[in-house]
Amino acid sequence: MTILTIGILLLGAVFGRFFKVWILVPACAVTFIIVFASSAYYGQGPLWALLEFAMLAACLQIGYMTGLLAGVTLSKYLRKPRESSCPAAPIAAARHRQPF
């Protein structure tokens, strides 16, 4: 169970880094189907399956937020500093001047 939880957290982090928030809807739906199918296969009760699904869905969402924050943080600190945009302004204005 611990390995599954860590795997779901990492999957959520990948989703948060590379996908929009709408990826959580089908991911939670697939998680729901897998959890309830495995619960029925192993003969566990529906309450146990519901608890396991709630835990995995929460881990998926926590991983998503972690990946999202990691992406924002990495892009902020790995971005190259731009040169000042003030020297480019006269050049851009000169291109749009009318000659007459």
Shape: elongated
Count of DSSP strands:
0
Q: Averaging pLDDT over every residue, what do you get?
A: 85
Counting helices, strands and paired strands, the structural category is mainly alpha
Alpha-carbon Rg, integer: 24 Å
Any idea how many domains? Answer: 1
* N- to C-terminal distance: 77 Å
Low-confidence stretches: none
Q: How are helices and strands ordered from N to C? A: HHHH
Q: Please give the count of helices.
A: 4
Helix content range of the residues, please?
over 70%
Q: Main β-sheet: number of strands, strand sense, barrel status?
A: none
Binned strand content:
under 5%
Structure at a glance:
The chain has 100 residues and is mostly helical.
Question: Can you tell me about this structure?
Answer:
By secondary structure, this protein is mostly helical. The chain has one domain. Helices cover 77% and strands 0% of the residues. The protein is built from four helices and no strands. Helix 1 packs across helix 3 and helix 2 packs antiparallel against helix 3. The mean pLDDT is 85.
